[in-house]
Amino acid sequence: MALLLCLGMTVALARGCLHCHYNFSEKFSFYRHHVNLKSWWVGDIPVSGALLTDWSQDTMKELHLAIPAEITQEKLEQVARIVYQKMDQLYQGKMYFPGYFPSELRAIFREQVHLIQNAIIESRIDCQRHCGIFQYQTISCNNCTDSHVVCFGYNCESSEQWEAAVQGLLSYISDWHKQDTNMRPCTAASSGPGTYRTTPAFLVSPNFTCLEPQHLANLTLEKASECLTQH
């Protein structure tokens, strides 16, 4: 298990993980403009067009993640490569029989959702391979801006490493609470025109009440260690 302390910064209004890839607009513009050449049945055209137009928003609706949808650049490239390859192959064919083309689009869409889910979860699980506070760069699928995830890994090889990890976590929490409220990341407030930040997850998690502000003054290293290992 890993204690995930998520910090994100966002500025744009775009939606969808694949939407954040640099080649998305060009690729999906081509797909939408050539959809009328892919089916013998005129009824397939509006259905397929709607699938392509709503691709990004539908992706966000289908992710169903309990953690923020933030993906690393490397994993986004991997997902994009697979999706574009399958889409390009579909568009290389001639006209298809009624119903086939939108059905294939839906299959690619569903596979894309699973790829994105797995990519995001895998990055979070990788946190377990670290000891203490760890940070990695991501892209927010909600708005395609640079973000980062801060997490606490439990993979410590000695009691000394574990003690240092817990002490580092306590220092991190203490520094966060000392920040000026105008500078502190928070879910509801804007820190600038069009810029929003999210609260570290542990501050709103019911599982870690021992880490809440009112307990910090009397929180010892032993108590923090006990709290972490219980969850």
From TrEMBL:
InterPro entries for this protein: IZUMO, Izumo_fusion
GO CC terms of this entry: nucleus
Coiled-coil blocks: none
Pfam families in the cross-refs: IZUMO
Entry superkingdom: Eukaryota
Signal sequence, renumbered to the chain: 1-16
Keyword annotations from UniProtKB, A to Z: Signal
Keyword Signal part of the UniProt annotation: yes
Similarity annotation: Belongs to the Izumo family.
Protein name: IZUMO family member 4
